[in-house]
Design a protein that fits this description.
The chain is an alpha/beta fold and about 400 residues long. The chain has three domains: about 190 residues, Nucleotidyltransferase, domain 5 (2-Layer Sandwich), CATH 3.30.420.10; about 90 residues, HRDC domain (DNA polymerase, domain 1, Orthogonal Bundle); about 80 residues, DNA polymerase, domain 1 (Orthogonal Bundle), CATH 1.10.150.80. The chain contains 19 helices and eight strands. Helix 3 links the parallel strand 6 and strand 7. Helix 1 runs parallel beside helix 2, helix 15 crosses helix 19 and helix 18 packs across helix 19. The chain is flat, with a radius of gyration of 26 Å. GO terms for molecular function: 3'-5' exonuclease activity; nucleic acid binding; nucleotide binding. This is Ribonuclease D. It comes from Actinokineospora alba. Pfam families: DNA_pol_A_exo1, DNA_pol_A_exoN, HRDC.
Amino acid sequence: MLLTEPREGTPDVVADADALRRAAERIAAGSGPIAVDTERASGYRYSQRAYLVQIRREGSGTWLVDPVAINDEIDPLIDALDADEWVLHAASQDLPCLAELGLRPRKLFDTELAGRLAGFDRVALGTLVELLLGYHLEKGHGAADWSRRPLPLDWLNYAALDVELLVPLRDALEEELRNQGKLEWALEEFEALRTAGPPAPRKEPWRRTSGIHSVRTARGLAGIRALWEARDTMARDRDIAPGRVLPDSAIIQAASVNPADEQALLQLPVFKGRAQRRLAGTWMRALRAAAELPKSELPDPSPPNDGPPPANRWADKFPEAAARLSAARTALTAIAEANRLPMENLLQPDLVRRTCWQPPTETDLDTVSETLRAGGAREWQIGLTADALAVALRAKPATASAD
């Protein structure tokens, strides 16, 4: 069955303090888990803030809250939403911007993560709703500019539908997980997700500029860094997505060509546009500053890595580590398949690589279990994998047979 709008109609947007107070009272008076979702404007704005918060609870209906209109002063919601478990889909995307508003769940159920643990190949919200509940959700505005005001009615329909069936989906997934004997695993995962701290800031984030692999000189990398930082400052100050200020491809081209002056810069394809002509002075100042840096301040073309080298290099240079990793992957693949789990949910690939690269001194079950625990593995993961991993860590490279 196709759902094109909420069954109770699309609610008005909560955009002032009185409406927010009434919404909070109704939500608090409802019963059972609370479906929560947000809409951001990632491709349009620098910030990852929530531009709309969608809430639904049995007995209270659906609410669409505009935090921008009420200056993020949503204190009445904090107590109302503390009443029960939150249900989100792909919670890791929404929890940070909800936390910015002071909204943090005391209990969590993530329907996307539940779908992965239950062994579904596709875990998009619409797919799971159709498979488990028999409804087809009208979609199409997820990548829209949600900072736009006023929000069109069809966008509000889309937003409300995102929470329309979240609680029934949660119940169906809980039953599926219970039948598979995985419910306790899921509860551990949800709690780990709920209590996870913010990710550590990336070191040298400019090195993630798309296409940077084509620039191999320290001076060229300095140009990329200077342009990236100038763009980032401008994007942050204007609250515009960095790629809309200057595409990565333009940064790479300008740093590679290293134009002598503004006129030469303006001959490059992206810089010929009106917007870039106005900013040409900013970009040239960044490039000149990079060109004048002493060698001691240039970025390292091969920065130190705090982790193991890429695993595809292990076989030739580090055969013992390669043997351990191969054995571990074989064993873990068998465990994942037997339990209908994605490999990355059975055990984080980075943790597997690091453990195989630098194994504990002892490879008994208790020591390997503690190593996994220190690396952030949950107890259910340790119970499934530690024994097999302990065996894999004792693997040796195959010796060539004599002629």
